[in-house]
């Protein structure tokens, strides 16, 4: 089966800057892709190219098997929603939503029916005659969404549509948005730099760093295995090292990997003694409980401990400038700053990443 959207080797330059570098991806019908990346990573540029607002310097985009290069933006069957809603201030809600339909020549009665349907879908029934300049930020985004959905686009592109809203509203709208898109079985690309939003909204996530598509996978898979050191760091993993940076004791966990190989240690995968609950209590009993060889136990000093409400973050100093970050559940009594602790890495919580580190 052919994918709905096929993006092949897109390259884009802005002056001497290569904004997009060999982007290739496919989207199936009804799939939601979130484009995640830091500011300047190229997310908006890729979206603008998909929409036809910018041309790529190289590469090809096909929608429904049709090459989009010669197709004007408004004939691509692509809908757009931006962060600032960009509504027409002199028109009411109904006229805003009907805009694309009227432009496409739809009769008034028919378009009115579609507008009502769309307003119901986005939870704004009964607000047809309201002026848009009197609406709240969340309502404006719902109108913008209804306007983009009304002409039944084949592909919907959303650029940080919730970016200007406060946290609570943003979470609620993100949930509603996914429900709405799924109800319509719409294929969508959603740009965000908010990780929670990307993970909760997307069927798949594409991580864009410095114009390169570093990783594209299901949220669970991306979280379980970030792939490269750059993606791991971007996702907030604090313990990404090369083998040669590790103190000898920790190195032992990784067998005979080469010095340059990057590895990741999950902060929640660090067991501290005597802070691992054990039936008999005491270090020895704990050691046998976690079932590791004595040789795997290492010593470090607590450099810093911070409480974050849902967990403790503890910085463990191994000497020689090497610091490991651990994350402890609140149910554990964390050691005092300056205390000497023994620690062990839990099974499955440390692993090699797939390439050597690159300077970025
Ligand atoms: N028209 C342009 N002219 C010059 N440089 C541009 C232009 N458009 C984008 N860029 C540059 O390309 C890079 C990627 O920009 P882009 O807006 O696509 O990133 P982004 O990931 O969407 O960032 P943000 O999250 O801040 O919106 C940036 O360095 C930006 O300055």
TrEMBL record:
Domain ABC transporter: 5-235
One term of GO molecular function: ATP hydrolysis activity
GO biological process: quaternary ammonium group transport
InterPro entries the UniProt entry points to: AAA+_ATPase, ABC_SmlMolc_Importer, ABC_transporter-like_ATP-bd, ABC_transporter-like_CS, P-loop_NTPase, Transp-assoc_OB_typ2
The keyword Transmembrane appears for this protein: no
Example of a GO cellular component annotation carried by this entry: ATP-binding cassette (ABC) transporter complex
SMART domains assigned to the protein according to its UniProt record, in alphabetical order: AAA
Keyword Nucleotide-binding appears in the UniProt entry: yes
Keywords: ATP-binding, Nucleotide-binding, Transport
Pfam family, one: TOBE_2
PANTHER family on file: SPERMIDINE/PUTRESCINE IMPORT ATP-BINDING PROTEIN POTA, SPERMIDINE_PUTRESCINE IMPORT ATP-BINDING PROTEIN POTA
Protein name: ABC transporter ATP-binding protein
Organism of provenance: Desulfobotulus mexicanus
């Amino acid at each position: 089966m052919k994918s709905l959207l096929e993006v092949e080797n897109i390259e884009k330059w802005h002056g001497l800057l290569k904004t997009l570098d060999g982007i290739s991806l496919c989207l199936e019908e009804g799939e939601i892709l979130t484009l995640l990346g830091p500011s300047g990573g190229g997310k908006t540029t890729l979206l603008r190219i998909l929409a036809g607002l910018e041309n790529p310097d190289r590469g090809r985009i096909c929608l429904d098997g049709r090459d989009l290069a010669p197709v004007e933006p408004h004939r691509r069957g692509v809908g757009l929603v931006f962060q600032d809603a960009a509504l027409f201030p002199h028109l009411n809600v109904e006229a805003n939503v009907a805009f694309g339909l009227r432009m496409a020549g739809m009769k008034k009665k028919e378009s009115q029916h579609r507008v009502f349907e769309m307003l119901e879908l986005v939870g704004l029934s009964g607000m047809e005659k309201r002026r848009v300049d009197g609406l709240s930020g969340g309502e404006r985004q719902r109108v913008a969404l209804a306007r983009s959905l009304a002409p039944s686009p084949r592909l919907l592109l959303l650029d940080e549509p919730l970016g200007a809203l406060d946290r609570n509203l943003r979470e609620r709208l993100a949930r509603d948005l996914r429900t709405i898109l799924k109800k319509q079985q719409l294929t969508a690309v959603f740009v965000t730099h908010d990780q929670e939003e990307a993970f909760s909204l997307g069927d798949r996530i594409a991580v864009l760093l410095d114009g390169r598509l570093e990783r594209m996978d299901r949220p669970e898979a991306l979280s379980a295995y970030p792939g490269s050191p750059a993606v791991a760091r971007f996702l907030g993993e604090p313990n990404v090292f090369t083998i040669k940076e590790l103190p000898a004791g920790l190195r032992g966990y990784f067998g005979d990997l080469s010095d340059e190989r990057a590895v990741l240690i999950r902060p929640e995968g660090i067991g501290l003694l005597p802070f691992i609950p054990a039936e008999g209590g005491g270090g020895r009993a704990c050691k046998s409980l976690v079932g590791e060889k004595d040789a795997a136990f290492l010593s470090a000093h607590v450099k810093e401990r911070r409480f974050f409400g849902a967990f403790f973050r503890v910085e463990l100093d191994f000497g020689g400038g090497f610091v490991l970050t651990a994350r402890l559940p609140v149910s554990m009594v964390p050691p005092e700053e300056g205390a000497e602790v023994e620690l062990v890495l839990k099974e499955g919580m440390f692993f090699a990443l797939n390439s050597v580190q690159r300077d970025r």
